[in-house]
Amino acid sequence: MIRPLLLAALSTVSPSFAAPLVGVSGTLPYTFTAFCADPIGESVIFGITTCNSIDIDYTATGVTSLSANTGLNLQTFLNPELPGPFPFTGSFVLTDLDNPADTIFGTLTGAGNVAGPPGPPIGFPPFAIELSMTATGGTGALAGSTGSLYLAGTAIFTAINTSGTFASGEGTTVLSSVPEPASGSLMVAVGALALLSRRLRSRR
């Protein structure tokens, strides 16, 4: 079952979402997918991969104070070199899906790491991250949005293909105007695959 994604972003001025960025709050579920971006086709399993950069994309929709139908999309590029924490960079877009021309966009940086013991649904541990999101602009009614947001949470890895080149999962995250502890963040759950490396090597 997909867990809810909680958004709570605060800023400095009016509720019209003119610059600088004003508060956004709500509850959203999200899913993610992951594959190796460099070189394409390499395994995403930490500890045995020669991948230099894992592309992890997140998609969430739900009700927020931004709109009754909000979309959040993140594209991140994670360095899987052991040991963790694993640094990443990327970009984000918040969209009023009922008025798709209205968006807030920006860049992000952060790091993630394994956050607990292996568990269901497929025996991988949770993975937690903290990231800083910098709004650099917007479009439509949200044009000129600026400000800093923070995201923290966990996610659950739910599937990986037999070759280890594609992974997916789901989780929860908290978005706010102040840094949150990584206990409840958007999880780059594929990073939890690092704990599989010993098992996979032992089978060879």
What do you see in this structure?
There is one protein chain. The chain contains one helix and nine strands. The chain is mainly beta and 204 residues long. The longest helix has 7 residues, at 197-203. Mean pLDDT is 76; it is low at 1-19 and 180-204. It is globular and about 45 Å long.
How would you concisely characterize the structure shown here?
By secondary structure, this protein is mainly β.
Portion of residues in helices?
A: under 10%
- Label the overall shape: globular
The termini sit apart by 34 Å
If helices are DSSP runs of H or I spanning 4 or more residues, what is the number of helices?
A: 1
What key attributes describe this structure?
204 residues, mainly beta, nine-stranded mixed beta sheet, disordered N terminus, disordered C terminus
Topology, pairings included?
Elements: E1 4-9, E2 24-38, E3 53-64, E4 70-78, E5 86-96, E6 103-114, E7 127-139, E8 147-160, E9 166-176, H1 197-203
Parallel strand pairs: 1-9
Antiparallel strand pairs: 1-2, 2-3, 2-9, 3-4, 4-5, 5-6, 6-7, 7-8, 8-9
